[in-house]
Amino acid sequence: MRTRYLVVCLLLIAAACAALTYYWPRLPEQVPVHWNIEGQVDGYAGRVVMWALGPGSMALFTLVGLALPVLSPQRFGMTAFLPTYYYIAGLVVCMLGYVFALVLIAATGGEVSMQRALPAGLFLLLILMGNPMGKVRRNFYVGIRTPWTLANERVWYATHRTAARLMVASGLLGLLALWMHAPAWSILLLVLAWAPLVVLYSLLHYKRLQNSQQLESH
Asked: Is 0.70 topped by the overall pTM?
């Protein structure tokens, strides 16, 4: 799986480099790099930043993805779920490539609605990443890493099963909301709301187990 991850990432980076090289003469000196919640450009930078935004960020995360399993402490090793880990890391690189493609289209004068295209990518990422979340084992780099999930293996498993459902549900509801042209605030809410819910669940589940163990000890 590590080799497949590396090959896929290198192909994506090569595609980003080829696209940027091809469109480089058509890029203006200042390219749009930031959009507000209404989908309007509110930030520009020199076109050279496109190398960092696309191939650079993708290459950097590819290397980070390769390094994290090696750097993981022994008690929190990632061997047990490496295929899932590389799948998730690969999704992040794909998302970086997708965002780069959107910016490149906009920078070369193409029609792209960041207000819809970017959230659509995020919602798809939530669905694809949430689906295998229950397979992630305790570690310091991937998953819902709260003090309570790291402290208790049962809390970790229960939290990640809940996170998987919430992430997929948020992604599906988000795509539906985009299709129905829902207001921007509701799209943002669907992108973010699952995270604090999962954190709260991990705390409540930990406290419930703690209280149960105290009762049993008496």
From this structure: yes
Query: How far apart, in whole angstroms, are the C-alpha atoms of residue 187 and residue 199?
Result: 20
Tell me, what's the pLDDT at 214? 67
Taking the domains of the chain in order of start, what are their residue ranges? 1-112, 113-218
Please spell the DSSP secondary structure of 152-206, one letter per residue: -HHHHHHHHHHHHHHHHHHHHHHHHHHHTT--HHHHHHHHHTHHHHHHHHHHHHH
Q: Which pair of structure tokens corresponds to residue 99?
A: 């965002």
180 CB contacts (<8 Å, ≥6 apart)? Answer: none
Contacts 24+ apart (CB under 8 A), 70-77: 72/139, 72/140, 72/141, 73/140, 76/138, 76/139, 76/140, 77/139
Q: Quick one: average pLDDT of 153-167? A: 96
Strands, DSSP E only, in the chain? 30-35, 41-46
CA distance 146 to 156: 9
Token code pair at residue 71: 């750097």
